[in-house]
Structures are given as structure tokens and as C-alpha cells.
Amino acid sequence: MSRRPSVVRRRAAGRRTAPMLPPGITSVDYQDVELLRRFLSDRGRIRARRVTGLTPQQQRSVTRAIKNAREMALLPYGSERPRRDPRLDAPASTTTTSATTGGTP
User: Fold this and answer.
1) Domain count of the chain?
2) Is 32 contained in some domain?
3) CATH number at residue 27
4) CB 46 within 8 A of CB 63
5) Is residue 90 assigned to a domain?
6) Domain range for residue 66?
7) Are 38 and 58 in contact (CB under 8 A)?
8) Are 105 and 98 contacting, i.e. CB atoms less than 8 angstroms apart?
9) Tens digits of per-residue pLDDT, 35-83?
10) How many Å apart are CA 71 and CA 77, to the nearest integer?
């Protein structure tokens, strides 16, 4: 049996994409709602670090600030999803028969 040649995967050369934090920002405040909204999805979920390009320390501080802002009601916990119309879930026929009511017709 011959051995399969080992495949060495190399990382693409170059730097990561620029982080979403503006240059010069050293700390993230929970009151800066406009900055924090950049790290939320349209559903109100916190974006992953691989999406935002933040360092682990920055991601932790942004996450903590978002959670504090949610507690203070500055940011929503989640967005309103369109709800199903309850009339669509209703049975087709609303008439009752004697078999279901147990009485006489």
C-alpha cells in the first residue's frame, strides 16, 4: 500500500479585513447605540467575531456593551418577526356535528 501524499493547507497571505471599530476607539460605551447597532444583525443578534473582524478582547467588550444597552432598553433584544395570521391555522369548517358535541341534531 502506498501512502497518500500529505496535503499542507496554507493560509492566504494578507491581513484580515479592516475591523468595524473606527480608528482611535479604545473602549466601547453602552450608550453609543449607533456604534453598537453595527454589530447587530437585522434580527437583533450579535454578529460573530469572524464577521466583524474584531479581536477577541474587542468582541468581548462590544458584547458586554450590547448586553448592557439591552438591559437599559437602549437596544432591542430581538426584532419583531412577521407573525403568522392565526386565521390561517383555523380549521376549514367551523360547524359542529352531533358526533363531536355528543348531543342530538
Assistant:
1) 1
2) yes
3) 4.10.640.10
4) yes
5) no
6) 21-81
7) no
8) yes
9) 999 999 999 999 999 999 999 999 999 999 999 999 999 999 887 666 6
10) 9
Distance CA 72, CA 89 (A): 37
Q: Is the full-model pTM beyond 0.85?
A: no
Centre a 10 Å sphere on the Cβ of residue 17 and count the other Cβ atoms it contains. Answer: 9
Let me know if residue 40 belongs to a domain.
yes
DSSP the chain: -PPPPPPPP-PPSSPPPPPSSPTT--S--TT-HHHHHTTB-TTSPBPPHHHHT--HHHHHHHHHHHHHHHHTTSS-SSPPPPPPPGGGGS-S-----HHHH-S--
CA dist 53 and 19 (Å) reads 5
Would 33 be classed as within a structural domain?
Answer: yes
